[in-house]
Amino acid sequence: MTWTLIESATERDAVLELYGKDGKFMIRANGLELMNGFCHESETALGTFAAGLAPSGCGRFLVGGLGLGYTAAALLRTLGDGGRVTVAELSSAVIDWFHRHVRASVLPTTHGNLAIVNADIADLLKERSRYDVIILDVDNGPEPLVTAANAGLYSTDGLRALHGCLADCGVALLWSGFEAAEFAARAEEVGFAVMCERFSRERADLDHHIYVLAKSDAAATTRQIPNINHVVV
Fold it and tell me: What are the φ and ψ backbone dihedral angles of 145, each rounded to 5 degrees?
């Protein structure tokens, strides 16, 4: 069975498409696959990994990018009733698709500590709300894919905003399909301690990376950040 187009929408300069197959879903942006429900191991690992970084398994979490919801679902499943999770999704269509088509299979349980908001993550970072953990999962790495405006997130100014939005020992995570040395250098310039954790898959060419940006060296030390491949999902 091939993927079947369910709906499409335009968000800024991106054409977004929702496809379905055998009860699973896929989202494409400008014809490029962003995620699909048959291969979400890295999103699940990312959410589980993030939950272990907050103090005592609680704290405040900000997730940039809803997608199919696998990252948020893993985060909430690991946290239980602890912590508060805000998911910022730029596209109102993606939020609508999630609730009407995807949620029943990915996040069927109601969570009182979850808020999904239609917002640009860049705007929320400017509010300096002091989150313990921030997850950036809006593109396929630290370069714009969904919309050109996302370039600002990975710029020096964007990284300064990210730094300012974290609590004193906060940690930011960025999912990437590739290594990005220039991005890591910019993050260090604004005051982050940077680690790059490789998420291994069956084929090396499909490996992903998780950039761990700790607001201080103390954050990396006190949280004892594990290798993401050792995370049980």
Answer: -130, -50
Under 8 Å between Cβ of 21 and 2: yes
Helix (H, G, I), strand (E, B) or coil at 58: coil
pLDDT at 233 over 60: no
What are 135-186's pLDDT values in tens digits? 998 877 777 667 778 788 899 999 999 999 999 889 999 988 788 889 999 9
Task: Give mean pLDDT, residues 206-215.
Answer: 82
**pTM, two decimal places:** 0.88
Please state, in angstroms and rounded to a whole number, the distance separating the CA atoms of residues 209 and 207: 7
Give the domains, in start order, of the chain with CATH numbers. Answer: 40-230 (3.40.50.150)
Q: At what angle do helices 70-79 and 41-51 cross, to 10 degrees?
A: 40
Taking the C-alpha atoms of residue 47 and residue 29, their distance in angstroms, rounded to an integer, is: 22
Phi/psi for 87 (5° steps) reads -110, 120
C-alpha–C-alpha distance, residues 43 and 48, integer Å = 9
